[in-house]
Design goal:
about 100 residues, 4-stranded antiparallel sheet, about 30% helix, alpha+beta
């Protein structure tokens, strides 16, 4: 059985590797939440991290050509829930964290 600490390390490593392979830069990676699935077979690890929001940056550039804002990037905090198998410690999937209003 994989401990919570091991599951958290596996989830953080998984997020870092997936984003590195896609060429996206992330920073400030941290643990946000730990839970278990209803059947207790999977750790549900929420990882938060900061990304550069290229879409927002492009919109800012278009609106502020020739101004100081033209060179600034918008940072966005993203949250992913990584499902870690409690027996093997293997990442099974990664989903967007859904927030309730």
């Amino acid at each position: 059985m994989v401990s919570i600490k091991e599951a958290v390390l596996a989830a953080k490593k998984f997020v870092e590797e997936v984003y590195a392979q896609s060429g996206e830069q992330i920073s400030e990676i941290g643990l946000e939440e730990v839970d278990r699935s209803e059947d207790e077979s999977v750790w549900l690890i929420t990882i938060g991290f900061t990304t550069t929001d290229k879409t927002r940056k492009r919109a800012l550039l278009e609106q502020s050509v020739g101004t100081v804002l033209g060179g600034l990037a918008t940072l966005t905090r993203d949250y992913k829930v990584v499902h870690i198998d409690r027996k093997t410690g293997e990442p099974l999937l990664m989903k967007m964290r859904q927030f309730r209003s």
